[in-house]
Each structure stands twice: as C-alpha cells, then as structure tokens.
Amino acid sequence: MQRNSVPPTNRERLLDLLRVSGTSSRIDLVEATGLTAGTISNLVRVLVEEGLVEETGRAASRGGQPRRMLQLRADSRCAVGVHFERGGIELVLTDFTGRTIGASRVDSDQRLAPARQLEAVGTRILAMADACGIAPHRVLGIGLVAEGPLDVPSGTLLANEADARWQGQPIAGLLERQAGFPVRLVPVGTAAALAERVLDGGRRQPFGVIYLASSIAAGVVHEGQVFRGADARPVELGHITVDFNGPPCPCGNRGCLSQYSSGAALAQRAASLPGLAEALAGGAGNPMADVQAIAEQATRGHPQARALWKEAARGLGHAAVSLVNLFGLETVVLAGPALAGAGDLLLAEVRSIVQASSCHRALSPVHVERSRHGPLSAAIGGALQVLCASDGTRTQEPTHRMMERS
Ligand SMILES: [Zn+2]
C-alpha cells in the first residue's frame, strides 16, 4: 500500500525542491539535483504543461540573462492530513505547496466503534473539501497521523493506550474505504518533523523535533530527509528510559519519558493532587483539555501547577539532550498542542538543560526553538507526507461518495 523505501523519482524530487524552496530557477534545480540541464528543462516543460508548475517572474542572474523563476501551482492539487489525538481528530486540507487552506475537527466519541468513528471522519473530510470548493480529482490522498506503535506499511494500529478497541485495526484501509482517497499511515513524530522540513526549509540540519501532545513523539531531519527506521518506524523518544526503576510501560520498557512528561501523564498527576484536581477541565479521554487547564493555572502562579510543568519540562529537557547527543543536532524544535498554554515555561526549562548538558556544547551552542506551525503541525505533516511522496498524478481513482452524491 505504501512506498516508504522506494527512492523518489526525478519528478518527485523536483516537485519537492520547489515545495521546500518556494521558488527556484532551472539552474538552481540543476545544482540541487545533479541532473543535466536538458533533463531539468524537459521535466519542467512537462510539469508546466500539466499545470503543476508555473513561471513566476525573473531573478537577477550571476551574469547573463535574468533567470526565470519557477514555483508550484498552489491550486493544482491538494492533500488531507488527519491527526488522531486522544481527545479529538484534527483535519487539515493543504494546497499543493503545503499551505493550509481548510481545517476541521471531529470530537472523539468513546461510545462509537472504530469503524463508525472513521466513518464520521470520512464524512467530515468530504464536507471540508466541499466547503473549500475542492473537486475530488484534485485531492491526492490522506496522510493519517497516529501515535504508535504502528505497522506503517500495512496501515495498522498495533496498540492504543487510550482505547484497546483500536488495537490491530487496519485504520488506513478503513478510512480509505470511507473517504474514497488513498490513505497513508504516518507516525506523529515523522509528520511533525516533515512539517518543519518543508515549511522551514532554510533551517540548518540536522535538527530534531519533539512533539508534545497526549503522548510524546519525535523526528529528526538530516540531509533533507526525515529519519525513518525499519518499516518507516519513527524516533521513539517517548519510550527512552528516564528512570530504570520506574513502572513498566505498555511499550515493554520501564520508566519511559512518556510516563512522566506526556500530556496524558501530566493530566493524570494533576488529577491526583487535591489542590489542583478541581481546577481541571475533567476532560475524560481528553488529556489535552486538562493540560490546558494546568497551563492556565501555572501561568497564574499556582505552585502545584508550576511544579508539575517544571517536572515535565525537566524530563523533556534531558530527553532532548539524548536526542542531541545521539544525532549530533544543532537545533531542537518543540512543537505540539501542549505548547499552547505553558510553552514559554517549557521552552525556557528545556533550553537551559540542553545548553548546559549536551556533549558538544563547547563546539557550538544548541538552539532550542518553538515551532512556528501551531498545534496542528502533525496534521499538516500528514498532508505533506502525501504531497512529498507524490509526482502530482493520481495513483488510484477516487471511489468517491462526493461523486456518487452529485
Ligand atoms: Zn514506553
């Protein structure tokens, strides 16, 4: 179903370069790809004829004729990103450049069986595309982003901490049937890293991304690519041991970072504190609502809330040091919905730990910064996974309910 290990075609590489750079000349593309000027010229001609690429003005040349600049035609194709979070399912629609043009949300309903929940998601995707005036043939597919462990090639959820009924569900195939578009399963950390790679193309590499939501996910971008392990497995930063005497984790390890610093862990700890429990949103099955409430209390100076955040941030800081040391990173980006409330507190603590403790700090300072792409960056990364793996042509025709209706 998915092509995770097949190298990209020249056409895919060219589209990807234009997506990351925004605009490039033919000479820029020759230099970036190592392909001949003739090959680039032919590829560009075909892509312009197909309406996927357009010329946009001229740039000053390093001698000779001004260079004609190229860019993707934003409205030529679209992709959908769907992020399964514990409290709700976030949906985004992006244009061919990866810019968000629509967003929607489906609340998780624990009473619904997985197939029914995916049916609601499929219906909402079609309504979102409809509302944005997007014809089905322009949608290349759906990137379905979920927390692990996942079997990415088969599109199956291997386990689900929050709801055991999802365990073993072939969710990519189920959603494909509901929405009528090809679906690719994408780990959260991979999606979050992809969003930074494409939308912040100028950032120095290698860099790491830590995505904090109900769970903790991470990704690493090196030499223009998001790191993928065997079968497209992500960087499982949430399951590194921070206390080897700690409790067993459902992943099989013990004392994992996720058990201390994830949104779900934070919500669980706050609920057990009499001075804080009453201030929580009481979002059963929605830890992020509680995390927002804890963040609000922390910014108002509530001592228990501040202590909880600081402890979670310490865990993340030391995990970030491990990520920096393992991959030789110069930059760590913090992302995810948990940053919405207490992001400054989190950033300051993680930055101070990383700058004081990473192995090679004497050689160059490690930057710790916040993602510029907001709480939906994982959903956006899901759509980008579809765009980046596409040569702009549909690989399968939509079996479309929108078409059946019209
Ligand atoms: Zn674990």
Automatic annotation (TrEMBL):
SUPFAM superfamilies, A to Z: Actin-like ATPase domain (SSF53067), Winged helix' DNA-binding domain (SSF46785)
Signal sequence annotation: none
Superkingdom of origin organism: Bacteria
InterPro entries, alphabetized: ArsR-like_HTH (IPR011991), ATPase_NBD (IPR043129), ROK (IPR000600), WH-like_DNA-bd_sf (IPR036388), WH_DNA-bd_sf (IPR036390)
Family: Belongs to the ROK (NagC/XylR) family.
Protein name in UniProt: ROK family transcriptional regulator
Origin species: Glutamicibacter halophytocola
